Sequence to fold (141 residues):
Amino acid sequence: RAFRYQLDPLTVLLACAEHPEAVAARLQIPHRHQRWLKAWVQLRDHLAALEPGALAQWGAVEWTHWLESQADPLHAVPMALLAGDRARSALLAWWFRWRHLDAGLPADALLEQGWSPGPALGQELRRRRMERLAREPRRLR
Fold:
């Protein structure tokens, strides 16, 4: 299953250890894989600290904002999925759908509408993406 998410199988196996970062350092696995494990441990701990009632109320916007603020979600989320972590349906929805949603309009189109390149343009693209995410179904399986 690790190959499906383009992860190193040994790194995924180490994610199941009680202290995966320490084992990875002891085995001297590549530093980038150690960073993946560190991101996974942080995500796991942050997920454990979230209120279960609040998780049920979150939709695509909240999950996307929260996951994308975590360290290296492109490696930590698949490890959470492989570990069978809580909030699996939200993690799957982010992995397969929400992270791929864009603003619905390319930056070039906004530039043609009179927007100037810079932080304001990026902020507008993020705002439009969050609007699209807000229209996603709220109910998760």
User: Anything to note?
Assistant: The CA atoms of residues 6 and 75 lie 9 Å apart. The mean pLDDT is 89. Residues 31-49 form the longest helix (19 residues).
